[in-house]
Amino acid sequence: MPRVLARLAERRPGVGVEVRTSAGRDELLAEVSAGRLEAALVLDTGDALGDLGFPPPPLR
What we know:
This protein has one domain (1-60). The chain is 33% helix and 0% strand. The protein has two helices and no strands. The termini are far apart.
């Protein structure tokens, strides 16, 4: 995924793309909640397809 996003950033310079491969799930979700990021991709590590392997963050 980082390669795909990097290529997107190259092809569409007006789109802000930031690739972080070392950020933790909680940090990414906090930044989305605070509005510092518009979206974050989180690896699905649950046992079943679509199961994130962790509880979703509380709704605000």
